[in-house]
Structures are given as C-alpha cells and as structure tokens.
Amino acid sequence: MPASVASFEWDYGDGSTNTTDWDGECHNYTADGTYTVTLKVVLTNGCENEYSAKFGIKIEKFEPDVNRLTDTVLCMGQNLVLSNSILGGASYKWELYDADKKLIGVVGTGIVQNIRSNEPGDFYVKLTITKGNCDKESRFIKYSAVGVVADFIPLNAVQCVSQDTVYTLNLTKKYPTAKPSYFWDFGDGKAANCFGYKQNCNRDSNENSQHFYMDTGCMKIELYVIDRATGCTSTANKEVSFVKPEDAIFSPNGDGMNEEFFFEIENERMYHLLVYNRYGERVFDTKQLQVGWNGRHQNQGKELPDGTYFHVLKYGYHCEKEDRLAKGIVEIVR
Hints:
Layout: E1 5-11, E2 17-18, E3 33-43, E4 48-57, E5 72-75, E6 80-83, E7 90-97, E8 103-108, E9 112-115, E10 121-131, E11 134-137, E12 141-146, E13 148-149, E14 152-155, E15 158-160, E16 166-170, E17 173-174, E18 180-185, E19 203-204, E20 209-211, E21 217-227, E22 233-245, E23 249-250, E24 263-264, E25 268-276, E26 282-286, E27 296-297, E28 300-303, E29 307-317, E30 324-332
C-alpha cells in the first residue's frame, strides 16, 4: 500500500468488505448476479475518493461424479473403465499415480476412460475437470492390477534339430501376493505328455523348462500361467525354428543310397542352396527345396571329382521376418 494512503475499503457488493488487502484479494461469490464493487480510499492529507465498477457473475456449479469411487481390483491386462457425467464446455484430465501417489502421467482426456496396466502393483487414478477458469478434482481412486502376465525367452531358439536342447527362461510378471502355477506346451506331438524338468516332455509344469525337438520347421512354445490366489490367467507364445542338414558326406555312385546332398526344412518362406568348389567356383545353385545336388556341375554333365566342397544355405521360415544363413563343408566320397 502506498505511504500516502491512510486507509481503504473494498466493498464487493454482496455484503462483504475487505480493509486488509490493498490489491483486493480474490473474492468467491456464492450466487449468480450483477455486483457493484467499490474501492474507497482515504489519504493521509484527509482527502477521500472512491471508484466503483459493475461485474456480472455466473457461478459454475459442478463436481466430479466418477462412476467408480470404490477401490477396484482387476487382473493385469484388464480394462478399468471410468466415466463422468457430460458437462458442457468442460475438459477432462485423467491422471495415473503410483502406490505412493506420485504422478506417473496423464492417461486420457475423454469423458469415458479405459485404464489398463500390464505391470503388477497398486495405482491411483484422479480426474480433474476444468470449466472456464474453474478446476475440480475427484478424490483418489485406488486400482490394483493383480495376478500374472506370462512371458518367457526361449534360449537356443534357432538350432540344428537333434543337436541342441531348447531352454526356457521364465519372465512372468507377478503381483506380490500371487501364487502362480505354470504349464508349458511345446507343441511337439512326438514327445510324451509327461511332467518333469529333466525329461523330454511335450508338457511341463515347472517354472522353467527345456525340450529336445526332433522335427524341422517352426515350433510354437506356449506358457499358460494361472494365479491360484486370484484366478487370473495369462498366456504367452514364442516360436523357435530348426533346420536339419543331411549327411555332409554323400556318395553319388548310382547304388541308390545317399545319392544327393540337400537340406530338410519345413514351413520355409525362402530357400537358396549354393555349392562351391575349393577354387570358389559355383558348381550348384537351386532355390527349389525338393532339388538336391547329385555331384555334377549344376546337376548336369560329367561327375565332379571326389573331394571337399563348400555350401551356403540362405533360408527363412514363415514364422520369422528375418532371413538366416548357414555355411558348411560337404564331401563327395564315391
């Protein structure tokens, strides 16, 4: 307040006055109407003056009325559906907080909002409604994402059949009080439907598992998890692939045994086999899976000499986007 002012009075026109705040504190009106606001000033020299102005006031009366104000428990991955009544000219902001009520971020701005967590834990949701210059907040709504979300990594996921074992590393996410049970299905009908970590089983109930495949192509591994505490379930699928080279030594001598060199691959998307001699000259080239190398130049003309050759196999499975490359040695022994 300036030193020349001895006293002042704000009159807000609704029966309220203010003689302590020179800047005219914010005033909350409780009813619609037109109000005359007057500032009266008395100076130290005895002079007095006043100024009046009229204001139209419209009270925005609204409160958040979220459809679900009770604590909610859902399985991870399920939608928590929240909504509020439609308010003309209003905007909405839904915020998600962690268990300590620290803001994670804004999750939506709609009247109806779906909230879903694929992470276990306890969360809080709050709605802020803005209409004009007014903001109204709902109370915190507690939301618990319980149960399990199945996940795993197949180790040795690309391998030669009958040579390596596929191991699974379980990465299932669990709520702290979850009691998970695991069920593995390796999709291999030739394996026994037994149980046990150290056996070649088609199905297994251990947290981690392993499997020894005997077929080529793409195989699907499925992990099904059930939380005995809540009944929540989750399934994860991953695919592994196998290629089986035939004998790296073959004998194209006309006796009907081991006459061709080729690869066995199932569910192939792309196949390209090339064979080179020790001088780097290409002696065989095919993109047809059913065509093997018979030991002749491009499968025609005279026989190539016994000895060591080099093969390059470019291939890809339908279950994979990326192409693969395999290199090795093949010998002709007649």
